[in-house]
């Protein structure tokens, strides 16, 4: 590694088309640009569409996930979520039609139908999700027709997930494809009625490191029963009971707001945004849920739970806060809801946030993120590695929260790193998760290894 001092690029050296996607709080005017797509078909920060669909649906534990495309697409997303299951493990497998040149030239519909028949015969799943990929979008295989015929042939749900990458360079389109597949799955059969209950659904929760189980435990103590999570530790049968809930909680807004709005329109189920990352976020969310039910006993139990848990973790949080005072952080994650949660958590720990960015944030979400930051902080949409490197250097960042693509870059620059990727195994939700998060921030930001390196601005890749 060359440790010579380097000079940051001048503003005029930056790519002109990226200027609108980067703002400095207190200096930049107007709204941040966040609607442009990445290059279609490219594996970039914003893409790919198929990956966006797969991360939403993959935690359905007993379903088969069949990728209609080259084997590389299935390999890329094999076990892509760090989701845990309390029962079935079918979702740990990755099935592919393994399309070759011949299939691309002559079409892959017959091969797809044969693959579905083989899977059903060997595994007898309750449902099969069939994902289209970039190649399928180019050659025009009729995924819908093949799945419809397979449904009639086998008497199970064979659901097309229209996630061809050449539709768009934005994985949000993949979220929508997954949402539409879920709406097809939960639609009651003709003549079948789902009885209403006082249970609630938890949307945008994928049970990473068992986080859904933590929230479920809180709800049970409050006197509220969880109906089904979308899609952490869920089964096909449980998801089909979703229309009977009285309320939808939405955590990952990017992937599940569409599902929530559609369920409100079709089934009359209201929804509310919640966030269980961070102690204060968790407390606020539990109180909002209790207020929805309007039951004095539920509200009493909720307050008792919140006060007990906050008192329990307060000494740990305060200890880490003293050690982390004055540290500077950067955040780059997939969605804005997660970025907002991280900002609040880091602020609770006395850490200053100097850079924040997302892959899929919307204009109003960036406005909210900006309101949480101090003047001089940088907001960036769909950042590339060169931009992240530049900001880590210039803003003298001590610790970065991000996904798998940012980990190596941070470490090479001598910056501590917090894993907040969708394949992580550490539970970061709830009150206990707040302590786990604080410990991770302290362990990496205050590691003695950093004193043996020069500052990020002096490190050259």
Automatic annotation (TrEMBL):
<dbReference type="GO" id="GO:0016163">
    <property type="term" value="F:nitrogenase activity"/>
</dbReference>
<protein>
    <recommendedName>
        <fullName>Nitrogenase iron-molybdenum cofactor biosynthesis protein NifE</fullName>
    </recommendedName>
</protein>
<comment type="pathway">
    <text>Cofactor biosynthesis; Fe-Mo cofactor biosynthesis.</text>
</comment>
<comment type="similarity">
    <text>Belongs to the NifD/NifK/NifE/NifN family.</text>
</comment>
<dbReference type="InterPro" id="IPR000510">
    <property type="entry name" value="Nase/OxRdtase_comp1"/>
</dbReference>
<dbReference type="InterPro" id="IPR005973">
    <property type="entry name" value="NifE"/>
</dbReference>
<feature type="domain" description="Nitrogenase/oxidoreductase component 1">
    <location>
        <begin position="48"/>
        <end position="444"/>
    </location>
</feature>
<dbReference type="GO" id="GO:0065003">
    <property type="term" value="P:protein-containing complex assembly"/>
</dbReference>
<keyword id="KW-0535">Nitrogen fixation</keyword>
<comment type="function">
    <text>This protein may play a role in the biosynthesis of the prosthetic group of nitrogenase (FeMo cofactor).</text>
</comment>
<dbReference type="Pfam" id="PF00148">
    <property type="entry name" value="Oxidored_nitro"/>
</dbReference>
<dbReference type="InterPro" id="IPR000318">
    <property type="entry name" value="Nase_comp1_CS"/>
</dbReference>
<dbReference type="InterPro" id="IPR049939">
    <property type="entry name" value="NifE-like"/>
</dbReference>
């Amino acid at each position: 590694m060359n440790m010579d001092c380097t000079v940051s690029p001048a503003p005029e050296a930056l790519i002109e088309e990226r200027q609108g996607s980067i703002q400095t709080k207190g200096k930049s005017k107007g709204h941040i640009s966040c609607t442009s797509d990445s290059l279609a078909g490219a594996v970039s920060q914003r893409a790919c569409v198929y990956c966006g669909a797969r991360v939403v649906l993959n935690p359905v534990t007993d379903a088969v996930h069949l990728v209609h495309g080259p084997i590389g697409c299935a390999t890329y997303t094999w076990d892509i979520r760090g989701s845990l299951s309390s029962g079935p493990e079918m979702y740990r497998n990755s099935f592919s039609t393994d399309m070759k040149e011949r299939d691309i030239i002559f079409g892959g519909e017959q091969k797809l139908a044969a693959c579905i028949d083989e899977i059903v015969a060997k595994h007898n799943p309750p449902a099969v999700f069939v994902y289209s990929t970039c190649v399928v979008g180019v050659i025009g295989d009729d995924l819908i027709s093949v799945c419809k015929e397979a449904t009639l042939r086998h008497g199970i749900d064979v659901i097309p997930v229209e996630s061809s990458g050449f539709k768009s360079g934005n994985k949000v389109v993949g979220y929508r494809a997954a949402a539409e597949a879920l709406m097809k799955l939960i639609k009651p059969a003709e003549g079948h009625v789902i009885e209403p209950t006082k249970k609630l659904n938890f949307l945008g929760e994928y049970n990473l490191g068992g986080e859904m189980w933590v929230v479920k435990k809180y709800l049970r103590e409050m006197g509220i029963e969880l109906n089904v999570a979308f899609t952490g530790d869920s089964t096909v049968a449980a998801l089909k009971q979703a229309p009977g809930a009285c309320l939808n909680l939405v955590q990952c807004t990017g992937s599940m707001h569409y599902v929530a709005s559609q369920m409100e329109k079709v089934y009359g189920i209201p929804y509310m945004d919640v966030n269980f990352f961070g102690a204060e976020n968790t407390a606020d969310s539990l109180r909002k849920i209790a207020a929805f039910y309007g039951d004095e006993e539920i509200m009493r139990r909720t307050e008792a739970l919140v006060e007990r848990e906050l008192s329990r973790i307060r000494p740990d949080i305060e200890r880490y806060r003293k050690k982390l005072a004055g540290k500077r952080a950067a955040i780059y994650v997939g969605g804005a809801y997660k970025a907002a949660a991280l900002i609040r958590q880091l602020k609770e720990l006395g850490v200053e946030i100097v850079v924040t960015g997302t892959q899929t944030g919307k204009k109003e979400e960036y406005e909210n993120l900006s309101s949480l930051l101090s003047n001089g902080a940088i907001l960036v949409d769909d950042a590339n590695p060169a931009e992240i490197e530049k900001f880590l250097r210039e803003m003298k960042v001590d610790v970065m929260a991000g996904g798998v693509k940012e980990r190596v870059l941070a470490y090479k620059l001598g910056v501590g790193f917090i894993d907040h990727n969708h394949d992580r195994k550490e539970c970061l939700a709830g009150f206990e998760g707040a302590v786990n998060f604080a410990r991770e921030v302290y362990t990496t930001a205050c590691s003695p290894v950093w004193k043996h390196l020069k500052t990020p601005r002096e490190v050259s890749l």
